[in-house]
Amino acid sequence: MTSKNTICLWYDGTALDAATFYAKTFPDSAVGTVYRAPGDYPSGKQGDVLTVEFTVLGIPCLGLNGGPEFKHSEAFSFQVATDDQAETDRLWNAIVGNGGQESACGWCKDKWGLSWQITPRALMAAIADPDPAAAKRAFDAMMEMGKIDIATIEAARRG
Fold first, then answer.
1. How far is CA 122 from CA 25, 59, 70, 125, 153, in A?
2. pTM of the predicted model as reported, rounded to 2 decimal places
């Protein structure tokens, strides 16, 4: 059954590659139905992959091979809550190591330009600490990071 709300992500002919990478990288993710174009269209030919249904961490998505007109931006990102440093490292390294790029404060981009926030739950707990000084120390530590280092965040939180 098709979800009532699906995130549609625009790709330049690489929707199936992206969906396959996400399915291999993230739990509760899979590639679903691949639809091929029934006729020629502005950025493709009859028989090319037009759309790909997939899920990322249980979220229904549709990859649309719409062509080079539109690019992903940081205005949209997937925020992935991680439970420990090993999971944080695995996901970050998978995205960046597959042609992606590092950014700041737990953000990175995959090779298709889609932004990801790899966010340890420990970071969220630290910046929500009821002690404003502890929260600020953790926040300031995060502001100096690319990939989040939980031990450093927790040390900053403790002071």
1. 22, 23, 35, 5, 8
2. 0.94
Whether the predicted pLDDT of 1 surpasses 80: no
The pLDDT of residue 3: 81
Q: Which domain holds residue 101?
A: 71-159
Mark whether 49 and 98 lie in a shared domain: no
Structure tokens at 146: 């690319």
As for how many domains the chain has, the answer is 2
CB atoms under 10 Å from CB of 65, counted, come to 21
41 and 92 both lie in a single domain: no
What is d(CA 109, CA 107) in angstroms, rounded to the nearest whole number? 7
Q: Are residues 33 and 93 in the same domain?
A: no
Helix, coil or strand: residue 134: helix
**DSSP track, 79-98:** EEEESSHHHHHHHHHHHHHT
Q: How confident is the model at residue 137 (pLDDT cuts 50, 70, 90)?
A: very high
Do 86 and 49 fall into the same domain? no
